[in-house]
Amino acid sequence: MKQNKYDNKIFFEKYSKMDRSTKGLAGAGEWETLQKLLPGFQDKRVLDLGCGFGWHCQYAIEHGAKAVTGVDISEKMLTVAKDKTDDKIRYIQMPIEDITFDENSFDVVISSLTFHYIESFEQIVEKISCCLVPNGDFVFSIEHPVFTAYGSQDWYYDENGNILHFPIDNYFSEGERTANFLGEKVIKYHKTLTTYLNGLLQGGFEVTGIVEPQPSEHLLHTVKGMRDELRRPMMLIISAKKK
Amino acid sequence: MKQNKYDNKIFFEKYSKMDRSTKGLAGAGEWETLQKLLPGFQDKRVLDLGCGFGWHCQYAIEHGAKAVTGVDISEKMLTVAKDKTDDKIRYIQMPIEDITFDENSFDVVISSLTFHYIESFEQIVEKISCCLVPNGDFVFSIEHPVFTAYGSQDWYYDENGNILHFPIDNYFSEGERTANFLGEKVIKYHKTLTTYLNGLLQGGFEVTGIVEPQPSEHLLHTVKGMRDELRRPMMLIISAKKK
C-alpha cells in the first residue's frame, strides 16, 4: 500500500502547525543529532526520499550540493516545498516504492522519518544501492522499532492519566500498525531492528553510525512533556556507506 | 562493581538446573542464531569472555581452534567447566573488567550474555580491540536494551495475572538495574542500543551482523510460554570485525 496521508486535508493542516513544519529543521527535536551524521554536501548530487516541505533539500543546497532531488508522494507538501525552497531543487511527486533512477545518479541519499510508512525496507535498500555511487553515503532517520511495535504509539497510563511506562508487544510480528498521530489514524509499518540493520548490511552497506536521538537540554527545558522522551527511544538515526 | 552472583550457592544451584546448563548449547534458545554469526574456528586463537560452563569454548575446540581461553569471575562455574570440557582449554578466573592480554593475542573473541553485567562497554571494547588481531572477529550476545531498560525484566500483567505487554521506561538512563532472575535479585547494567553499536563503531570495529534471535519452531512448540518471546526482543547478537 502506498500511503499518502499527508494529502488528507485535516491531517495536512494539523501537520502544518507542528514545530517541525513551521520552524523547519530547528523545530525538529532530532535535527541536531541527524546533522552530525550527515556527510559534507559540497558538489554532491543529493536525493531526499520523503522530502516533505523540502527542509533537508534546502539545507543540502545551502551547503554546496551540486544538484538536489526531493521525492515525496504528497502533492500538498511539494506545493509548499516548491514555494519555500530554492528553485534549483528538483521535486518529484511519486511514491518512494516506485523510484527508478539510473545507476550512479547520486552521491548522497537521505531520508527523514519516512521508511516506517513503507512496507519493505529490503526493496528500498536495493533501489538506493542501485542509484548511489560506490562509497556513496546513505543517512536516514526512522521511528524506532520500540516505538512502532505496539501500534498505538501511546504511553500506558494509570487510572488518573499518569504515564506508567511505554508498552512493547508483538515485536517480531512485522507489518501494519494503526497509530494515532495528531488525533488522526495513520498506517505505519513496524519492522524490527534486525530488519533495518541486517537489511543494510546484507544490501551491501557498511554501517558507520547509529544514534537514538535524545532531546537537547534546550528542548527539555522549553517543551512541555519533552522530559518523557528520555523514558523511551522514539527515533533511530543510521548512517551507512555503500561498499 | 564486579559482580559474581554465580558463586552465590542458591543462585548457582538454580542456574545449574536451567536447560542451557544441563543441555549445553542445545538448551540455549539463541544458540542456533549465534552459531550462524560465528566465524570459522580452524587454527584460530579464541577468547571467550564470561565463559561460564565452557560450552562455547568446547565448541571452538571441537571446531579446530588452535587455542581457547575462557575467562569468568565465577569459581563454581569454572570448576564445572574444567571438569566437563576439553583439557586443552585454558580457564582463567578473573573479572572481565581486569583482563590485560598482550596485543594480537587472539584471532576471535566471543562473549555470551555477559556484557549486561558490566558497567562500561566502552572499556571492554578497548580491551578487546587491543588483544585482537586486525581483521579479527568479535561476536557477542547481550540482553536487549529493550529487555534491560525497565529493570524488573518482567511482563506487565492485568489483575488476573495475564500478560498485557512488556514495559519500557528510563531508556536513556543507563546504569544499574535490579532484575529478578530465577527468583533471585541480580544486578545488571542497562545500556542503550546507541552505546553498544556506536561504541563498537567508535572503537574501531566494522559491524558485520546484527540479529535479534527468535525462538525456533521447535522451541515454540515444546517450551511453555516460549510463544511470548515473539512479543518482545530479549536478546541481541552482534558480529563485528576489527578494522
Automatic annotation (TrEMBL), chains A, B:
CDD domains: AdoMet_MTases (cd02440). It comes from Desulforamulus aeronauticus DSM 10349. InterPro entries: Methyltransf_11, SAM-dependent_MTases_sf. Residues 47-140 form the Methyltransferase type domain. It comes from the Bacteria. Keywords: Methyltransferase, S-adenosyl-L-methionine, Transferase. GO terms for biological process: methylation. GO terms for molecular function: S-adenosylmethionine-dependent methyltransferase activity. This is Methyltransferase domain-containing protein. It holds the Pfam family Methyltransf_11.
